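*Target chain*
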Amino acid sequence: MDEQTLISKLKAGPVIPVINPASVKACLDATDALVAGGAIAIEITLRSEIAPKALEECRKAYPDIVIGAGSVMDVERYDQAEALGADFTIAPGRCFDVEKRAKGRSVVHVPGIVTPSEIIQARLDGFHLLKFYPSEAMGGAKTLKDFGHIFPDIMVMPSGGISYERLPGYASIPIVLSVGGSWMYAQNGNYREASDMSDKMRKSLYAMLKS
């Protein structure tokens, strides 16, 4: 999937559940409920031994949704994500070896930034689709509104501490492509019931799309 296709799809469904899978089954069950609630994209963080299998099984079960591989911070993880069928990889910061590896390949890599200096360098390196992390800890929508004035040519995918109640602030910012988090499927560290997941997902999409 090329970057423009990814951007187009995320504009249509600008809420990305970020799942750090407790098990393959839990990840699949959550994805079932989230897709039922309208999710067209999910991110599975590759931070555990079971995560690659969870991504692989989700890809098989849902060949048409956008699947991202999160926490991709080295070339080996990037290659693994590509082999498992991820549509994009994303990192919490700049990973220069991964960025070099991803150039010209079919799996888009989204570097992480948090400061103006990092944005400037990312743009010079040819990256205009960026992750903003940890969003809420670094000023959230207020910071991104300021960034939008200075860097109107970038698009950002903020995550980190975002809650449902914060969505209207992000939805009003032109450079925000999508928001990611776990609020729509988990509460206080525990997975919600399937019907509750679907309902939260549906309401989250509405909150982002109505602005």
In short: DSSP finds nine helices and eleven strands in the chain. Residues 3-206 form a domain with the TIM Barrel fold (CATH 3.20.20.70). The chain has a mean pLDDT of 97.
